[in-house]
Design brief:
The chain is α/β, with parallel strands linked by helices. It has 15 helices and 19 strands. The chain has helices at 6-9, 31-36, 38-44, 79-91, 110-117, 177-192, 242-254, 269-272, 290-293, 298-311, 330-346, 376-380, 423-428, 433-446, 448-452, and strands at residues 12-15, 48-51, 95-100, 129-130, 151-154, 159-162, 197-200, 260-263, 285-286, 319-321, 352-356, 454-458, 464-471, 474-481, 487-490, 496-502, 511-513, 515-518, 523-527. The structure holds 1-deoxynojirimycin (NOJ). 1-deoxynojirimycin (NOJ) binds at residues 61, 64, 101, 165, 201-202, 264, 325-326. Its EC number is 3.2.1.20.
């Protein structure tokens, strides 16, 4: 794979550290716990680990409110634990990606503490402070992502500060060069310690309209939607100047070899592409969340893949995401049969796949009793279906009381409902989802066509999604049945091949020619190489 980079041919595995493995019996996962579970990740066959934030934090948003960018929260361990983990990840041949949260700090960050003291504070301009509107209300109509006004009045100085998320997460002012330099130093702190890259939180939010103009009303808003959607976010994010900020971050990474910059961006494709940057000097991988957001419909997914492929800038590397800590579990959305097809899709598409912990064993949304709700979003906008806790529950290692995650009561409920929805059971069962993921990851490593090959659409109808991957004489056909009825796909005249892998256990080696009979919920990988 020497002609491509690790973040191009590799697979990224996202760990939500509170929920992966508790090593010290406090019911919350930690860095040492992750280290102890590394043999599992090696066995599974992923190439890089992205860990959600573990920095010191009051945990108002579970680590996405950072109080110190250059340390480890005691809940998760120490810098020494981090170094040990990093050493072992690298010794296992994997890469380590950190979550970087530059848009906002915690309100307990010393920078904000200093900023709020007086209007003349040296750090006043590190955040976004404004006078009240003439009626005493907030300076503009912007809405927080978690509901309510995005402005918080601060008695001490009689001004409002802006927070795109919780009031405990004041937004930094990235128009101020001192903020940029301070954050670049934070990046270097971790790069010097050997991290291989960053997933940058809400990167499209970093710059806001200079004049902080009101956002226009969204005419398509419907009352069941989140409050944020009442307005069109025209002025509060995705501003042209953000690309300069990202290019500067990228330049910091370029001071080191082989590092990756991944951007978290929820935008339509045409806006997303700008985040590769002019001359590809922006994010290496602007996250592509289309599979999370689209109806599970073969025709629709077929066209979105093609639209994405076409929209990519020359040389821009694609990527696909099937789950993360902000979205409902994929196996819950699609059911167990299609979760297998989805695994096959994620790991055969062209582009770097990101896999969310637990999706490989089909973890589903875990019911959270009202008294155990943790997610601040659910607390702010209750009962509307925004709770992210159900997709953040402890990794299910076995079917013991605490699923092998901890020997204390875990911070979120564990899921006991299905005795085989855990690593131990599925490791034993060749037909499990876990073993399917392992086989797919292995195949992706063996077959260059799958990891780095070209993508070629194949015409199909109804519930069938088909495409080819090709690389230097190697040609692989992927046929996925996104429906629950059997189908026949007519292959082009003269097309012949052999089954490499079926997600329903069809025998490898079976010869295919002329027509391909595909069962309900089946996904097939067929080698067409002569
Ligand atoms: C995006 C993160 O993924 C989410 O979990 C967090 O709440 C917000 N950014 C705010 O940092």
């Amino acid at each position: 794979m020497s002609d491509t980079l690790w973040w191009q041919h590799g697979t990224i595995y996202q760990i939500y550290p509170r929920s992966f493995q508790d090593s010290n019996g406090d019911g919350i996962g930690d860095l040492e716990g992750i280290r102890q579970r590394l043999p599992y990740l090696t066995w599974l066959g992923v190439d890089a680990v992205w860990i959600s934030p573990f920095y010191p934090s009051p945990m108002a948003d579970f680590g996405y409110d950072v109080a110190d960018y250059c340390d480890v929260d005691p809940i998760f361990g120490t810098l020494e634990d981090f170094d040990r983990l990093s050493t072992d990840i690298h010794a296992a041949g994997m890469k380590l990606v950190l979550d970087f949260v530059p848009n906002h700090t915690s309100n307990r960050h010393p920078w904000f503490q200093e900023s709020r003291i007086s209007r003349d504070s040296a750090k006043r301009d590190w955040y976004i402070w404004r006078d009240p509107a003439p009626d005493g209300g907030p300076p503009n109509n912007w809405i927080s992502n978690f509901g309510g006004s995005a402005w918080q009045f601060d008695e001490a100085t009689g001004q409002y500060y802006y927070h795109a998320f919780l009031k405990e997460q004041p937004d930094l002012n990235w128009r101020n060069p001192e903020v940029r330099w301070a954050m670049h130093d934070a990046l270097r702190f971790w790069l010097d310690r050997g991290v291989d890259g960053f997933r940058v939180d809400v990167i499209w939010h970093l710059i806001k309209d200079q004049e902080l103009r009101d956002n226009p009303i969204n005419p398509a808003y419907e009352p069941h939607q989140r409050e944020l959607n009442r307005l069109l976010e025209v002025h509060s994010c995705d501003q042209p100047e953000v690309h300069e900020v990202i290019a500067e971050m990228r330049a910091v990474l370029e001071e080191y070899d082989d590092r990756v910059l991944i951007g978290e961006i929820y935008l339509p494709i045409e806006r997303l592409m700008a985040y590769y940057g002019s001359d590809l000097k922006g994010a290496h991988l602007p996250f592509n969340f289309q599979l999370l957001q689209s109806a599970w419909d073969a025709r629709h997914i077929d066209s979105l893949i093609q639209e994405y492929e076409t929209a990519l800038p020359e040389g821009g590397w694609p990527n696909w995401v099937l789950g993360n800590h902000d979205q409902a579990r994929i196996a819950d959305r699609l059911g167990p049969d299609q979760a297998r097809v989805a695994a096959m899709l994620l790991l055969t598409l062209r582009g770097t796949p990101t896999l969310y912990y637990g999706d490989e064993i089909g973890m589903v949304q875990v019911p959270i009793p009202p008294e155990r709700v943790q997610d601040p979003w659910e607390k702010n906008e209750p009962g509307l279906g925004f709770n992210r806790d159900p997709a953040r529950t402890p990794m299910q290692w076995d079917d013991s009381d605490r699923v092998g995650f901890s020997n204390a009561e875990p911070w979120l409920p564990v899921d006991h409902r299905e005795p085989t929805r855990n690593v131990a059971a599925q490791k034993q069962d060749r037909s499990s989802l876990l073993c399917l993921y392992k086989q797919l990851l292995e195949l992706r490593r063996q077959r260059k066509a799958l990891s780095v090959g070209r993508y070629r659409p194949v015409t199909a109808e109804g519930d069938i999604l088909a495409f080819r991957r090709e690389h230097e004489g190697e040609s692989i056909l992927i046929v996925l049945n996104l429906g629950s009825a059997a189908h026949r796909l007519m292959l082009d005249e003269g097309t012949r091949g052999r089954v490499v892998l079926s997600c329903l256990g069809r025998k490898a080696g079976e010869e295919i020619s002329g027509a391909l009979e595909i069962s309900a919920n089946e996904g097939l990988i067929v080698d067409l190489t002569n």
